[in-house]
Amino acid sequence: MKSNIFLLFIFFTLLIANSLNARQFEKKYSKEGYKLVWSDEFKKDGFPDASNWTYEKGFVRNEELQWYQPENAFCKNGFLIIEARKEQKPNPLFEEGSNNWRKKPNNIEYTSACLITKDLRSFQYGRFEMRGRIDISDGLWPAFWTLGEKGNWPANGEIDIMEYYRGKLLANIASLGTSKKPKWFSNTKSTEELGGKKWAAKFHIWRMDWDSEAISLYVDGLLLNKTTLKQLKNDDGTGINPFMQKHYILLDLAMGGLNGGDLKDTKFPNRMEVDYVRVYQK
Question: Where is the GH16 domain (predicted)?
Answer without folding.
Answer: 22-282
